[in-house]
Amino acid sequence: MNSLEKVTEIKHPVIARDLTILRDKATKTDVFRLALGRISTILAYHALMNIPLREKPVQTPIQETTGYEIDADIVVIPILRAGLGLVDAITNFVPDARVGHLGMYRDEVTKKPVDYYVNIPNGIENALVLVVDPMLATGGSACDAIAFLKSKGAENIRFTCLISAPEGIEKLQTEHPDVPIITAAIDQKLNDDKFIVPGLGDAGDRIFGTT
Ligand code: PRP
Fold first, then answer.
1. 155 is in which domain, residue-wise?
2. Is residue 153 situated within a structural domain?
3. What is the sign of the dihedral through the CA atoms of 180, 39, 148 and 110?
4. Lining residues, ligand 1, CB within 6 Å
5. 192 located within any domain
6. Shortest-distance Cα residue to atom 22 of ligand 1
7. CA 18, 22, 23, 28 torsion: positive or negative?
8. From 57's CA, which of 64, 89, 109, 198 has a CA 20 to 30 Å away?
9. How many Å lie between the centroid of ligand 1 and the Cα of residue 71?
10. Which CATH number belongs to the domain containing residue 136 in this structure?
């Protein structure tokens, strides 16, 4: 099921326009959320690429033909809190997807992820697990989250983010080479504070209006 490119950087005019809105420090919360919602839909479309289908006959007004339904258990795992901003786009496509939560923040001094909440649905060993977080910076949070999910039995994992740094991509690919990365932008680098450059600031603060 994971027959995706190792790294998919989606190029699309709508994404280029919406990333500009998200990067702009003058963008207010309402406009930020709308742009994030649009990009999230495109990310979700790619994250769900190649998922299994089973045939389901359908009667059109003209005749019966072959239709399809999703033949996979989809579990979405947002890394709290900013990852919540990417969940609705996936559940809009897959309304019966189950959602687990991993609470993790990056310590402001050490820049290392700190766990504070876990609620993962049963049965992730047979599911397609979509881990979502807007930012892949050092990659520490994503790597820890994925290692934890693997320790709980997950075998089929994809990671989706809005913006990524080359450093985070390299770390994630080194530690979890089986996990495809879907991103809307690979930025230049991390700065000395481990923020993505040019980035968009703190995604969680901007989504939830906590700056
Ligand atoms: C941000 C972001 C990722 C993490 C990325 O979370 O949403 O979870 O940092 O950094 P890393 O790749 O270096 O680990 P943050 O700590 O700001 O928490 P929040 O989602 O609660 O705002």
1. 7-208
2. yes
3. positive
4. 79-82, 104-106, 113, 133-142, 168, 194, 202-204
5. yes
6. 204
7. positive
8. 89
9. 32
10. 3.40.50.2020
Q: How many whole angstroms from its chain centre is CA 47? A: 8
Query: Residue 95 domain-assigned?
Result: yes
Catalytic residues: 106, 110, 202, 205
Q: Can you give the pTM of this predicted structure?
A: 0.96
Q: Which of 86, 103, 92 is nearest to 207 (CA)?
A: 86
Comparing CA positions, the residue from 168, 169, 166, 170 lying closest to residue 189 is 166
Is the per-residue pLDDT at 3 higher than 80? no
Q: Ligand 1 center to residue 97 CA distance, Å?
A: 24
Our count of domains for the chain comes to 1
Mean pLDDT of 156-175: 98
Question: For 57-101, how does the pLDDT look when each residue is reduced to its tens digit (9 = 90+)?
Answer: 999 999 999 999 999 999 999 999 999 999 999 999 999 999 999
37 alpha carbon – ligand 1 mean position (Å): 19
